[in-house]
Design brief:
Helix content is about 80%, strand content about 0%. It contains 2 helices and no strands. It is elongated. The protein has 2 domains: about 40 residues; about 35 residues. By secondary structure, it is mostly helical.
């Protein structure tokens, strides 16, 4: 009886391992399929961020100047 239970336990372990390998195999197949469909592709047009960065810097400087002027006008009114 002990031999039977041990064999049954080993069979369950092998079955679980087989299912895990099959699951990984199917995941790899699905990822390969998505890659083939360009699911993970980046933008097709290169994106130059330098212009946007300059605009953001200009806006930040303008915001600082406005905040400074508002602070000065508040101080004068008090």
């Amino acid at each position: 009886m002990a031999d039977y239970l041990e064999a049954k336990h080993k069979a369950k372990i092998v079955n679980g391992t087989t299912r895990a390998v099959d699951h990984r195999k199917s995941m790899i197949e699905r990822l390969t399929q998505l890659h083939g469909q360009s699911y993970f592709a980046g933008p097709s047009v290169p994106h130059d961020l330098s212009f946007e960065w300059q605009q953001k810097q200009k806006q930040a400087e303008a915001d600082k100047r406005i905040a400074h002027k508002m602070k000065r006008s508040r101080e004068r009114s008090q």
